[in-house]
Amino acid sequence: xxxxxxxxxxxxxxxxxxxxxxxxxxxxxxxxxxxxxxxxxxxxxxxxxxxxxxxxxxxxxxxxxxxxxxxxxxxxxxxxxxxxxxxxxxxxxxxxxxxxxxxxxxxxxxxxxxxxxxxxxxxxxxxxxxxxxxxxxxxxxxxxxxxxxxxxxxxxxxxxxxxxxxxxxxxxxxxxxxxxxxxxxxxxxxxxxxxxxxxxxxxxxxxxxxxxxxxxxxxxxxxxxxxxxxxxxxxxxxxxxxxxxxxxxxxxxxxxxxxxxxxxxxxxxxxxxxxxxxxxxxxxxxxxxxxxxxxxxxxxxxx
Length: 303
Hints:
By secondary structure, the chain is α/β, with parallel strands linked by helices. The protein folds into 3 domains: 5-83, Arc Repressor Mutant, subunit A, CATH 1.10.10; 89-151 and 278-302, D-Maltodextrin-Binding Protein, domain 2, CATH 3.40.190.10; 163-272, D-Maltodextrin-Binding Protein, domain 2, CATH 3.40.190.290. It has 10 helices and 15 strands. The protein has helices at 5-17, 20-27, 31-45, 61-82, 101-106, 112-118, 172-178, 230-238, 248-257, 286-302, and strands at 50-52, 57-59, 93-99, 122-128, 142-145, 154-158, 163-170, 192-196, 205-209, 212-216, 222-225, 243-247, 261-262, 270-272, 275-279. Strand 9 and strand 10 form a beta hairpin. Helix 1 (5-17) packs across helix 2, helix 1 crosses helix 3 and helix 2 crosses helix 3. The longest helix is centred in the N-terminal third of the chain and has 22 residues, at 61-82. It starts with a helix and ends with a helix.
């Protein structure tokens, strides 16, 4: 049985995206074109691959099985075709990265403009996601994560600042009213602005000074989801609602302007910077190879 490779790719795009419109946005095609391609595949196979409702598109059991086998196979096809890219003067194609919101805000702005200027034939797509996902299953070529969240079979390349800190801060007016903490445990008596992962897990607040590590689980009037709603917590802190902990780089403009005041700065914990990571078991696509080389060159020039 011979089925058009483009039709199979359409099925994978729709199944991954969870809908025809979403698949069309991800692939730059039309929803009607994807629908017709999936219909052709189902007709040729004689089995329904997707359950369609007004709200969602979900693979059937047969569709899920086909998706599991097709995804790596199509990845190998893309990698094989990408070999031709090596014969071009400039790499071309699409590079899709899965990154945490913090990296999209604090790491990539210093890298992306120069990279796109150097490689005008590469289209870069950034998926900002604070959940820990399989980059290949998510249809991405690579991701950015911190070392404690890297999978063991991945190749990791340092990207961005190599040392970062978590900062604690509050509006001066809040601290004038409620006092300035001298020790992390004092925060248990303050209004603290918390964050929660999409999984439901709350982030503990961790501080360190001269080898002493203190972890606390404070309470407060506001909880936001990590990533997408973080700026709301920052705005609330500026308005005097309570104390916030966040990447120092995220808070730095407000600390410099005086809208926020550092809290417990001698206790701010340092941690290693993020890594660009990608699977080591497959051929690296030319756009990703170009990005890796650009990141390495940028890092060496900044030393």
